[in-house]
Specification:
The protein is an alpha+beta fold. It contains 3 helices and 3 strands, in the order βαββαα. A hairpin with a 2-residue loop joins strand 2 and strand 3.
Length: 92
Amino acid sequence: MQSYPLAELGDARLKEVFEQAIAEPVLLTEESQPSYVILSAQNYQQLIQRLSELEDRLLGQSAKDALGRSHMVGTETFTAELERLAALDSGQ
């Protein structure tokens, strides 16, 4: 990744920075510290698309793992619990 000091960016240097950003992200520094990253709109869209795909994959895996750990309550237990709750609600 190419790096440019922010303080040294003039009109001529800006053109160079934007041309470089077409090929790869460009790092702008301020007092030798990373401050900004410039990338092309196409690279930005690819980055966002990849992030979305990874989030979807992670959420899908989390759901699959949760389903594997879940336990279904038997019908009898479920019905008995509903009756117990109904009795509590009605004050019996």
